[in-house]
Automatic annotation (TrEMBL):
Superkingdom: Eukaryota
Residue stretches making up the Carboxymuconolactone decarboxylase-like domain: 45-114, 176-250
Coiled-coil intervals: none
MF terms in GO: peroxiredoxin activity
Protein name: Carboxymuconolactone decarboxylase-like domain-containing protein
Record Pfam families: CMD (PF02627)
Species per Swiss-Prot/TrEMBL record: Friedmanniomyces simplex
Upper taxonomic lineage: Eukaryota, Fungi, Dikarya, Ascomycota, Pezizomycotina
Amino acid sequence: MPYYSVHKRPPPHPLTPSQEKLKAALLATGEEWTPTWHHLLILDPTYFAAYCRLRSVPVLHQRLPRKTQHLVLLALDASVTHLHDHGIRVHTAAAMRAGASKEEIMETLELVSVLGVHAVTVGVPLLQEVLAERGEASDSTPATALTPHQEQLKQDFTRQRGYYSPTWDPVLALSPDFFAAYTAFSSVPFQSPSHNLLEPKVKELIFVAIDSATTHLYAPGLKVHIRNAMQLGATREEVMEVFELAAGMGVVSVLRGVDALGEEVGGGVEGGKK
C-alpha cells in the first residue's frame, strides 16, 4: 500500500546498485516509487528488504488474479477505517491496468461502504445484554417469533444478498425499518444489469479483506464471509492470500514516520544523520 510523501523535491543522491535492486524488487510487487520509499531505503535497507519479501509473497504465488488482488488492496485502502488516499489512487489505476472496468471499481467501493453497519451489529447485542441486566423485556430474543412482515424482510435480504446470518435477527426484530433500508443499500452492488459485475466469490473476498483489516478486525463478520466465499468456490489458499495482502497495512506506520523524520533531519536523511 503505497504512501504519498510530503517530500516534494527529488532525493539528492542516486541509489547504489544494490539499492537499485531493492527498488526494483519493490516495484515488482506493484508499489509505486515515491521519495518516502527512497528515504526508507537509505535509512534502513534491511527493513526495506524484509518488507519487499513480505509484500512479494502474494504477488509471486498469485492465487488470485492481479486484478482481484488490486481490487482487494483498493478495498483495504478505501475502507472507512483506513482511508489511505494515495493507495486508493494507486490501486484504482493498477486494477484498471489489469482489466478492471470503472463499473467494477465503483462496485468495489460500494461493497466497502457497508462497513458502517457494524455500529449496529456490534451495538445491538450489547443493547440486548443491558436490557437483560435491567430486567426489561426485549422483542429480539432468539425465542421471539418474527412477524410476517419481518419474515418477508428476512426473505428479501436472503434473495438480494445471497445469504442470511443469525447476526441479523436482533436487528430485524428491534428495527425492521432500518433492516429494510440496509437491505436495499447493501444490495445495490448485487443488482443486475447495472451492477453485479464482480463474481460473487470476489465480492465475498472483498468483505473478508475489510473485516480482517488491522484497523477493523470484525471477527463475527469475517467468519461469515470466509464461509460464504468458500461456499462460492474460494480455496483456502485464496482466502489466505487476502489475509497476506491485508497484512501489509502496518508498513504505513513506518512510511509516515519516515516522512516526519525526513522533515526533522532535512538533507541529512541521506546519510542517516542530522
